[in-house]
Amino acid sequence: MSTPSPDPKRWLVLIAVMLAFLPVVLDMTILHVAVPTLTQALRASNTQVLWIIDIYPLLMAGLLVPMGTLADRIGNRPMLLIGLAVFGVASGLAAFAPNTAMLIAARVLLALGGAMIMPCVLGIIRRTFEDAAERAMALGLWGMVGAAGAALGPLIGGALLEHFWWGSVFLINVPLMLVVAPVCFLLLSRVEVTTPSAWPIGQALLLIVGMIALVYGIKAGFGATQSLSVVMLIVTLGIALLILFARQQLRSATPMLDLTLFSHPAIIAGMIMAMVSVGALAGVELTLAQELQYVLDKTPLQAGIFMIPIMAAAAVGGPIAGRLSNLFGLRPLACLSLFIAAGALAGLAFSDFHAPGLVVPVLLALLGLTLSIGLTASSIAIMGSVEASKGGAAGSLEATSYELGTGLGITLFGVFMSSAFARALRVPADLAPDLARRAARSIGDTYLVAAELSADQGAALIAAGKAAFTTTHTLLLSTSAGMIGLLGIVVFFLLASYRGTSVSSHKDAA
Prior knowledge:
With 510 residues, the protein is mainly alpha-helical. Helix content is 80%, strand content 0%. α9 (201-223) runs parallel beside α16.
């Protein structure tokens, strides 16, 4: 059977959408290294810091599928360009936010822009690359740009904080938008096949509110920020709305989301891989950024440089995954990468960061490489399981998994860290009870309380905080290692029926 000729501009199109994706992923990690500086400047509580970080992936998790389906109706190109404009404006607002409330509001707008961009990027890649082997390489290169953006995030953030105020980590997105938007405007085709049906705004609102309610309920439950009855009410509301949404999709002649996508075990495996891997990576990066600055007294730039191995290795993981999946198949690649990542996390859990030597950089690089390979494998599994016409929907599912993983990962890491830190902290005996309670919330709060004390008292409290955070670090990374190892076993069974479309297609072509 004859196949359509590949688009001669397909690699230029790939460059355009990778450039569009870069600012979104950059914004996911550039803030991590700025957390200590931002906390002190805005005098933000631990809860406020978590919301500043979490509100972005939380809202994107609810917005991605609706924005992806809207893009199918108005076209990926206009949706992408609108998203880039919104993202640029929101970055400027975040940079000059005078307080935490305004910063959180700007992050809401950033989430809207990011939710417009991400489904379009993956949908365009799926539609542009019909050949499975080429698609695996394209997704690998896309993954490389994502990891490179994550790699540059802490480094750029650290460099900016050496010379400018905390808002500069957001302001950097504005010149990026001024470059990326014209490139996408010129390279992306103006001719697109769109879905002529109306966009079901009622279904979209059900999904958005349901997803946000469910995820917020989980966050509130783990964080103990609401009573159990309130948490149960919010979670029940979220589940009820999502069930109602699912029933509408099954009954509708033109559903917003084709629920038969969930009948593919490879798509389920890809979504779980994406969610857990990106959650672990985000949580580990946030933990390291705080430990390096609060415990090891490194500057933001020094912290960014210290984390280069994990990010640089992650940047090359995508193309490696694309090549290896074509050679050996997806299942062994995905499982082995997750098992090695678990081993690297276990090694880091018991490493001394005060004397890292060669062991810590090697373990960081190994972790970044293997988690990046796992993330690219998730993209190959999802995009290789659907035809091109469903690429946008599949892309929105994958992007939703990324955002859920980032949001829940940071939340769970943050809550776990706060709980373990509070138990491990041994405050000086003469510290007032109310100050002791405040200091036990997080290491950032420990520094804030120490600033109100005498020099000797403050130094003793900070020393206790450093010791407690080191204990927390070991417990946190050990738990993460077990979680990633368990994921490898789950993926092994879910991909049992996956026959490696990239491999078979490649051989058929030969």
